[in-house]
User: Fold this.
Amino acid sequence: MGLVQLGLIHLQETVEDLRLEKVADLIDNGRWNVELIQEAFSPLTAHKILAIPLANQGNVDSIYWFDSTNGIYVCKSGYNFIRSLVAREEASTSSGPLLQAKLWRRLWASPALPRCKEVAWRAVRNFLPMRGELVKRGMQLDPCCPFCETEVETCGHLFLKCPAVERVWFASDLAIRTESFSSVHALMVAVLEEDDVDFIAAVQQLMYVTWEARNSMVFNGRKLDVGDVLRRSSMLKPWDDGIHIPQSLTASRPANWKRPEEGIVKINFDASVKNEIGGLGMVARGTHGAILGAAALYPVSVISPLLGEACGFRWALKLATEFGFRSVCFETDYLQLFEWWKKGSIGLSYLDTIVRECRLFTSAFSYFQFTFVRRSGNLVADFLARNASNFPNSVWVEEVPHDVDHLVINDALASSPALI
Ligand SMILES: [Zn+2]
Assistant:
């Protein structure tokens, strides 16, 4: 039974005096009437209703990267953009162009891992999918910082002002009083001016592990542990990055997984249904096959494998928006779901309802594609779905459980351009 259907039954039972008859009564000018919903339903039901994205009337809003012909963001284009911004800032400051350019080059020249430098840069540019920003873009979620739960989550709050994160900075040996900076940009300028590569790298690492801890909290409910965060930061070494492919390993079984095009995140998902209980699995990978995220969910009540696949699709779409992915390609190995999607669902079955909800989610992406792949191209998601009961409700950011490493390596090897 769908959330809306559940909500309607609840509606009939308990809020007759509010004279609500249709779901449309809960919608005001294309948006959920938050006040009314919170009054009419229990907090849990209200939260679930508000989590359902509404379709836009007329033109569908989308977010695209302005600096490329196809609207898809790629790192190189982002890098060029920041360079041009720096050039513009230089032209308008008295400190002179050379000094400013030299300063920002230090951000990329530090010995920290590329992913640490990128998070630091995205924090400076306000390009991380903070809840406050997502709500501004129309997403229905709680805008509060997951750590302190009092302030709106923004880059400035998370990295500088949040009491929980302040404790991390305080306990580190960096001796930075983050609360004295007005923005992450101001902090980074001060750090880069020190011109000490190890210091710059240490700050970037701490920002990265803060972001990682924030994701653990959001997706797995894991509380921030200052000691853990600092240990993790000190363990980040340049040789720790990317996927390790042991020389001795070769593609040991047929794998049909293909790497996504530049700038696109490929998301494979799958469901495994036994006795009307389903497990779901999803994995998101970037251009070079690097893991961006993975998740498993168990148990999910479903009456058929097809319904399980549709629920898996909806779940993976929602996670992709939470990860902040913008350009996505989803892949299923379930032909019936793919056919159902292609024919366009106009029916009234519960499956049609789920598929329509999936369609609503797609408007959150600037680029969206849905393709069919043979089962051998969907092995990682298949493994996570079949073993979901071992990790009932888990999300991994930039990693997968160790049990699935060999399949990720297998896919990366089989799709390596050098082997084609
Ligand atoms: Zn906070």
Q: What stands out?
A: The first helix runs from residue 3 to 14. The pocket of zinc ion is lined by residues 145, 147-148, 151, 157, 162, 164 (CB under 6 Å). Confidence is low (pLDDT under 50) at residues 1-16, 92-97, 241-253. The longest strand covers residues 291-301.
